[in-house]
Amino acid sequence: MTITSPSASPVPESDGAFAARGLSTGEAASRLTEDGPNAIAGVGHRTRLSILVAQVASPLVLILVAASLVSLAVGDELNAAIILSIVVMSATLGFV
Q1: Backbone φ/ψ region at 67: left (φ over 0), alpha (ψ -120 to 50), beta
Q2: Which of 41, 44, 48, 81 has the largest CB neighbor count within 10 A?
Q3: How confident is the model over 36-45, as pLDDT tens digits?
Q4: In 6-20, which positions are buried (b, 16+ CB within 10 angstroms) versus exposed (e)?
Q5: What is the distance between the alpha carbons of residues 69 and 58, in angstroms, rounded to a whole number?
Q6: DSSP H helix total and E strand total for the chain
Q7: How far apart are CA 87 and CA 46, in angstroms?
Q8: What is the Cα–Cα distance from 91 to 84, expressed in whole angstroms?
C-alpha cells in the first residue's frame, strides 16, 4: 500500500498572478499602492514596569501573596518564604 499526499492546487492564474513568473511589475506596484506593504503592524512598546505590573497583578500571583501573608500571620515563616520565592521566580521568568 502506497500512501501519497494530494498535489498542491496550482495558483490561480487570475488577478494578474502567474504561477511561473509571479506578478508583473505594474501589477505589483498597483497592489502596493492599493493594499500597502506586506508587513505586520507593529505592536506598541511595553516598558519593564508594565510587564512587572502585569506579572504581579494576575489573580494567581495575588492568591500566592495572600497565602504567604497568612503563613506569616500563623508563624510559618518557611512556607511564606517558599511561596514568595515562587512569586519572585514567576515574575523573573516573565521578563525572559
Answers
A1: alpha
A2: 81
A3: 888 887 777 8
A4: eeeeeeeeeeeeeee
A5: 17
A6: 4, 0
A7: 21
A8: 11
Residue 83 exposed, middle or buried by CB count within 10 Å (0-12, 13-18, 19+): buried
Q: Name the residue with cell 508587513.
A: 39
- Beta carbons of 91 and 53 less than 8 angstroms apart: no
pLDDT in tens, 74-83: 999 999 999 9
Rounded to whole angstroms, the Cα distance separating 68 from 84 reads 6
What are the residue ranges spanned by the domains of the chain?
48-93
